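Notes from the 1:1 (GR / supervisor)

We went over the backlog. Supervisor wanted to see one worked example end to end before approving the batch request, so GR pasted a single chain during the call. The sequence is below; no edits were made to it. Supervisor asked that the structure be written out right there so they could see what the output format looks like.
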Amino acid sequence: MTTKQLHITPENINLRISLPASKSISNRALILNALAYSPYEIENLSDCDDTRVMVKALDSSDTTFDIGAAGTAMRFLTAFLSKTVGEWVITGSERMKQRPIKLLVDALNKLGARIEYVEKEGFPPLRIFGSALTGGEIHLSGGVSSQYISALMMIAPYMQNGLKIILDGKIISKPYIEMTLKMMAEFGAIVRFQENEITIKPQTYKPIRYKVESDWSAASYWYEIMSLAGKGEIFLKGLYANSFQGDSKVAVLFEQLGVKTEYQSEGVLITATKNNVSAFEYDFVDQPDLAQTFAVTCCLKGIPFNFNGLQSLKIKETDRIVALTNELHKLGFVLSEPAEGQLAWSGERCEQAEIISIATYEDHRMAMAFAPAALVTPLSVEYPEVVSKSYPNFWKDFELLTL
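Structure output shown during the call:
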């Protein structure tokens, strides 16, 4: 087992960080670019595992694709291959084989696809017999992963009858659906999203030149560092106020945890303030990937919290509710799950582990959310290389804090 020992006592933080490109935008852009039969290469593509496997699959002449632990790639490519003439097999890591995909497969099969399970019913690997899709109308729970919905949306213009998706109940991760909609529009498609209905008529995408913006999710760990350090300044390149990314909300939320954001022409400058709330409450239904960052920050600052909207955290790279509870317990914090989709800390403490070794559960966000805790206490992070999933240069950038 590889581990990374961390303990940081910076005198003064003054950093300029080149963040990775947005994984969410990169992966959508790759599918849209392919569907548009574009001659242009996408600029500033994310250099992460998820995006690399997408590029490899889209550029490959193989008929079998192993996408490892890349959940976005599994969902987007399943939809893409279902409309691409040929016979395909898509598989992944052992964890990927435990992540449900039945809802997407059922939806695609109803729309004219032919997809079979190679091993366990409802889970990858899949055998896909690609052909033209008829399309039509389907109902999906608004509580399903937005990646299922986005996967269907992106291929919808090429369905013979187009597609109408009716989302039942509360819609989670809505900004990701809106991101897909806006990017489809950039590639020339007209999408109607009104209340709980998404309507896409048959049409074609137009090839365009496309540049990917930096990743607000990756920025969240630098906000966490600034909040815990309480001094200095960090410039984060390539971030903009009018972002497609729902996680750009991190700038507003961290105002409550002592971090100020100043938007500049080439990115944002973040600095520490003394403005900290006494308790933090938020519904993360639109920004589930920020939950780990805020849980660790609040605990280490002694700020009780109550989070809602975390339903999707159980089907991420790991069950993030369980993972956060286990690892924050090592740091001396007793978390609770008051109800499904909730996570809370009342201020209850327990004895901190003598030697703190943070398990990462094959989850990049566990590694990056807990790394800033080294500003407060010495610890080690197990399997630190997991950050390659979304932020390959994270440790190189993180080590700038010790210079």
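Supervisor's comment: The chain has two domains: 3-20+214-402, 23-200.
Batch request approved.
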